[in-house]
Write a structure and sequence with these properties.
With about 210 residues, the protein is of the alpha/beta class. It contains 8 helices and 7 strands; from the N terminus they run H-H-H-E-E-H-E-H-E-H-E-H-E-H-E. The strands form 2 sheets. Strands 4-3-5-6-7 form a 5-stranded mixed beta sheet. A two-stranded antiparallel ribbon has the order 1-2.
Length: about 210
């Protein structure tokens, strides 16, 4: 193992800073601050962080029904018999699902697209879980608890990419016989669902409108 040069970090510290810097939104200075926290922390605290990361990679997967993050398959929402499996709320990311479910106004089930259409970035329909959503609508056994779908609510972020994705899904489901709606513009255009407060989300649910008819 090579030794560190004078005036530089030890090799192991440099490697840690480099790995931290690869995280989204973490620059060089932030990576160094986190690395020094690890160095100053008690050994058990630092190792607990390491173990938490390892446990996430070992146990967390995507629900086979809705693509939510879960350590049990299907996830707790899809398996919950008190929720209305005929009502599917489509969201872009697991964090959107968490935010909407915590608001406590929706008692149906979800579908996570794992992104949104962005042709300029090479993200087409095949890169998302749209085919799995269509399968849930057309084949009830693919849906939560084998329930026939009655309505698909598009809860995508109200920006250009979200609108394009919503229209693509609406067209794909146009001949399915299910009602397709989207959340009302209680959520301002250009904003993100994860930052919306409960009052805004309540307005969005109450004012949702049809995208396609039967």
């Amino acid at each position: 193992m090579s030794q560190s040069r004078a005036g530089s970090y030890p090799e192991s510290v440099s490697r840690l800073v480099e790995k931290l810097q690869s995280l989204p939104g973490v620059g060089r200075r932030s990576a160094e601050r986190i690395a020094f926290w690890v160095l100053k922390a008690r050994t058990d605290e630092a190792l607990a962080l390491s173990e938490a990361i390892a446990e996430v990679k070992r146990s967390v997967r995507h629900c086979k029904v809705c693509w939510n993050l879960t350590d049990h398959d299907p996830c707790a929402i899809c398996a919950d018999s008190t929720r209305d499996g005929s009502l599917i709320l489509v969201v872009e990311q697991p964090r959107d699902l968490v935010r909407l479910d915590q608001a406590g106004m929706f008692r149906g089930v979800f579908h996570v697209l794992m992104g949104r259409l962005d042709p300029l970035d090479g993200v087409g329909p095949e890169s998302l879980t749209i085919n799995d959503l269509i399968a849930r609508v057309t084949t009830p056994t693919r849906n939560a608890r084998g329930t026939e779908v009655q309505e698909v609510i598009l809860g995508l972020n109200p920006d250009l990419e979200g609108d394009s994705t919503a229209m693509w899904i609406a067209q794909a489901l146009s001949g399915s016989g299910v009602r397709v709606t989207r959340l009302a513009r209680g959520i301002p255009t250009g904003s993100q669902i994860e930052f919306a407060n409960s009052a805004v989300l309540a307005d969005a649910f109450a004012g949702r409108r049809s995208v396609t008819e039967h």
